[in-house]
Amino acid sequence: MTASVVVTGLGITAPNGLGTKDYWSATRVGKSGIGPLTRFDAAPYPAKLAGEIDGFTAEEHLPSRLLPQTDQVTRLSLVAADWALADAGVRPADLPAFDMGVITASSAGGFEFSQHELKSLWSKGGEYVSAYQSFAWFYAVNTGQISIRNGMKGPSGVVVTDQAGGLDAVAQARRQIRKGTSLVVAGAVDALLCSWGWVGLHTSGRLSTADDPGRAYLPFDERAAGHVPGEGGALLILEAADAARARGARVYGEIAGYAATFDGREPGLRKAIELALTDADLAPSDVDVVFADAAAEPELDRIEAETLVEVFGHRGVPVTAPKTMTGRLYAGAAALDLATAFLAMGEGLIPPTVHTDPADHYGLDLVGTEARPAELRTALVLARGHGGFNSAMVVRS
Amino acid sequence: MSGRRVVVTGMEVLAPGGVGTDAFWSLLSEGRTATRGITFFDPAQFRSRVAAEIDFDPYAHGLTPHEVRRMDRAAQFAVVAARGAVADSGLDTGALNPYRIGVTIGSAVGATMSLDEDYRAVSDGGRLDLVDHAYADPFFYNHFVPSSFAAEVARAVGAQGPSSVVSAGCTSGLDSVGYAVELIREGTADVMVAGATDAPISPITMACFDAIKATTPRHDDPEHASRPFDGTRNGFVLGEGAAVFVLEELESARRRGARVHAEIAGYATRSNAYHMTGLRPDGAEMSEAITVALDEARMNPTEIDYINAHGSGTKQNDRHETAAFKRSLGDHAYRTPVSSIKSMVGHSLGAIGSIEIAASVLAIRHDVVPPTANLHTPDPECDLDYVPLTARDQLVDTVLTVGSGFGGFQSAMVLARPERTAA
């Protein structure tokens, strides 16, 4: 039983655009959302740039009672879910509650909220810790709050696989739809831009310390020296293709294939791609564009580039990394790439990879600073998580 | 639904009261408790000062100094349990295609103990708003993103298949195993090393649960502090631990002559969509999860021999759950023994679901229903057979184990004696 699972709604919160319309109009023309970090004073830290979401006022979108109990990541998630449902033309109240689920990925939970409460604990005492801390921090918070806000009682869950999580959550959602759930809100949003989160991100050893936003995050470039963190991500509405058609829904495309592997003696990325293509019943030559993980760390770039050349041949497929405009959004990144892939297929336009001057020796056909028109039927999205996680997802228009 | 059936062929438990499956079963079958006054830090400032702590020496369990240095305590538990489970299974993982072996590790709160310490250091005891990266632990990133737990286990057992942490609050330990079962059934993996871990006994956790009065203040009598289904219950006792299983497809397990501990016959999770910490008294969503899990197992409610309850010992949970059992099992709920091992090993958040699966497997193996310790005072709202104080010898072929968690998650799993279903 492998019913086709389609995407019918997108909810996007990104540093270069809030909402699908703003995000895509910025992304298609290469407008970056990376700039000096303003959320707190970055002067003491080696990394000073970030992809911050500007102009997001939670009060405009959410009831006031939710504000004291939520971190930025949960507020963004709730709004992204609202937008995705609206985009899909779905009113959750009209559907049977047990037929709707929520599956998200998270990297580090509501980290800013927890920094505040830990400060209360250690500077004042345990009695000053918020009654909301017990759930505002933990990794399941976004799924729980989205399910409550929308009355969704079906199979729900949370996966944590660092930056591969955005794809893993969508794959788990597809699994639940194949087992009979009608609709799943799936994807990931991450937001870690507090000083404690910033320190956490630094300990990955992979942050760019450049101070010029145009030279900070340069995947597949000789100058690659780490990435810029961002906040945001995307939530998608997944439905069974038959059900979506029956209700006359607009369909962005299909989640056609997926696989996940873990690095061992050799990197597992190639195997993930091959298994995802097999799952989609497609050959490498069917793939029209690859959304790269684009770590901008020389060893990781080398592995990804070699893998793509092995699978697709020398300059064998257009490759792009629109995350160069947002910074890496951790679990949110791959979910946003997935949403972007659907937008790209819809317009027939591969979004650009900004700032990077790709090194020839990688052998990639990297779409540069100008978007490239192309007939796009099939896209491959790649994501890698710290420690050895690889995920690959194939989507079809 | 595919015909692939999933069985447990290896397991290892690290629970309060003794590391290892045998020590765990002794504690449960003898009805002893492992709750005590907190020793990890001075709990004087907290309302609740009891916990179920493990006396755990990582070096005694084969971890190297590097492993101990880079891993949070919960990751250490997971790796020790995973190695133990693989050894118990007799599986030579090195002889298998590593891409067909996956890992799922449940955890509700990740590396809480380390993060609490990390924060304290970089903020200089909460003094600094702009925390100082010069004082960050070099392995902070492993604490920051708890996917490191799955990564450590995957490396420890040589898995290169799908690997992840599953984090759905206090049902994580059921959901992690349920996720793994789905991967084997759909054909993505042949072997899953699946389980859960949590080591949350730290000041920030005590403060969190104090703030909502979820944990018991019964610190004058710590050995009897965890009192599920008792009329005097007033909150749960925080615990820690891990349980990890080797899951295999039944036919391939048989072909290699593996000892099959139990079949995972059915699983489902549902959400209450009601409140992040509150439960509606009717138990409708847990009941739905139970019904779907039974359907998947192709069993009638009357075929359940024992219910391993969530039984946290909060007022609302035990009531909610009792209602859910009646709603899903009907009159059979009154005839079925129900017990909570949290009375003995406390509530280890994301880990407990897997520890309770282990208790269920052992109940089947030994034909013994573990008791609910400290249950002396009946509660009129909890009117089922909770097996007070003393374990009960009876045939146990099938077990229903359930969990309920913050975020509204309600999960249920049905386990069955292998001969019963595999004939």
Structural features, described:
The complex is a heterodimer of chains A (397) and B (423). Helix content of chain A is 31%, strand content 21%. Chain A is of the alpha/beta class. Chain A has two domains: 5-246, Thiolase/Chalcone synthase (Peroxisomal Thiolase, Chain A, domain 1, 3-Layer(aba) Sandwich), CATH 3.40.47.10; 256-396, 3-Layer(aba) Sandwich (Peroxisomal Thiolase, Chain A, domain 1), CATH 3.40.47. In chain A, strands 1, 2, 5, 6, 7, 8, 9, 10, 11, 13, 15 and 16 form a twelve-stranded mixed β-sheet that branches. In chain A, strands 3-4 form a two-stranded antiparallel sheet. In chain A, a hairpin with a 2-residue loop joins strand 1 and strand 2 (17-18). In chain A, helix 9 packs parallel to helix 10. The radius of gyration of chain A is 20 Å and the shape is globular. Chain B is an alpha/beta fold and 423 residues long. Helix content of chain B is 34%, strand content 19%. Chain B has 15 helices and 16 strands. In chain B, strands 1, 2, 5, 6, 7, 9, 10, 11, 12, 15 and 16 form an eleven-stranded mixed β-sheet that branches. A three-stranded mixed β-sheet of chain B has the order 3-4-8, with no helix packed on it. In chain B, helix 3 (73-89) packs parallel to helix 6 (147-157), helix 7 (172-185) crosses helix 14 and helix 10 (284-296) crosses helix 11 (315-329). The longest helix of chain B is centred in the N-terminal third of the chain and has 17 residues, at 73-89. Chain B is globular. Chain B starts with 5 loop residues before the first strand and ends with a helix. Strand 6 of chain A pairs antiparallel with strand 6 (163-166) of chain B, so a sheet runs across the interface.
